[in-house]
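Continuing the batch. This is chain 6 of the set; chains 1 through 5 are on the previous pages. Same settings as before, nothing changed between runs. Recording input and output for traceability.
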Amino acid sequence: MSNPILALRAVNKSFGPIDVLHDITLEVKAGEVLCLLGDNGAGKSTLIKIMSGVHQPSSGVIEIDGVACPLPSPRAASEQGIATVHQFGGTFPLMSIGRSFFVGVEPTKGWGPFKVYDRRRANAIAVKAVQEFGITRIDDGDRLVGGLSGGERQSLAIARAVHFGARVLILDEPTAALGVKQATHVLRIVNEAKRRGLAVVFITHQVMHAMAVGDHFAVLIRGAVAADFKKGEKTREEITDLMAGGASMASLEAEIESQMAQA
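Output for chain 6:
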């Protein structure tokens, strides 16, 4: 078995006296989608920030390719090939597609002090990269990002991450604010990223979307991994029940029934 590209081993995170993550152990391999499921407040956002170098764990180890590798900053995570795409794609509505695709690393032409932004080259590369992910409606790199749908913005951000060498793609609730058609586009792109051999961490609270693309699943409840299982090992109803704290609810109901019987 190959080493996972990214792994967390017994990771804990506290902010002062508040414990946020408890003994998190997870791994994701090339060509695999790890779905992190959990309701609001489950600890998903903090976990994303640890994976992307924004926060450092209070204890535990982060491994890259089987070797301990601290991520002291987002730049360090990026240098290891970890790219994070947030819910609205991290794009710039008033920029063109080509400019947004290359923001910070713009291609230039000319020489010395006479170098200028190479708009034609940037547009051609950006449009080609997005179309390779199946979004053929985008054919003009001068078009403003603000005119794209939510799904197209996600596509642009994912295509950009892949173009610049991402090996691990962390997707933070990419379908949360999208309609059915747009969400379907994003799920297709997730499958395409998996086909290309990327390790994908797909954070969501929508079980159907997770089941459509996931290979490996982890359910977070109050900062801990409540369940860790492979595709096909649990039904949609079982996963939903886990996320809702079904076991706790069942225990509470049994306790109430017992008290009523004794009354």
